[in-house]
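Sample entry (164 residues):
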Amino acid sequence: MVSIERIYTIDNDLDAISDVVSTMMDEMRAAFPKTQPFEVALYEAIHNAIEHGNLAIPFAEKKALIESGRYDQTIASRRRTTPYAGRAVRVRMLLSDDAISFSVADEGDGFDWRAWLPDPDTTEAATGVSGRGITIMRSVFDTVSYNDRGTEVTLTKKKERPDA
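Predicted structure, serialized as tokens:
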């Protein structure tokens, strides 16, 4: 049974992520009092959806943009440019009696999530400028799953039940 269902839409503004995540954490705090790990993982999922999905900045290009000092400029430019400007991220939160689930969907072309599944901790993902988000999500949630295109990730955590 679903206790709370919320849907949030975020344009490609990275600064807006914190407010949306904070609102969701407030709503789930009664069921999951320790929200900090969820907050970090959900922030990463939404950030990835905007940056890599809607704004189409590949993992390898991000590193080069950061190193050249052009990362912020590229984000700002793509936010104003077609086709990126009209895209949004949709976040759906479902809180039930036994679990919390977040689905984060972008309007980009998707990515090959299968390449990251065997063990993202053995790639540059663990320590590089890209890929840490997937590692964080997998460390916080019981289930991290993607749609076939790689445009939506669903994060699920079951409630811990006290031993009877």
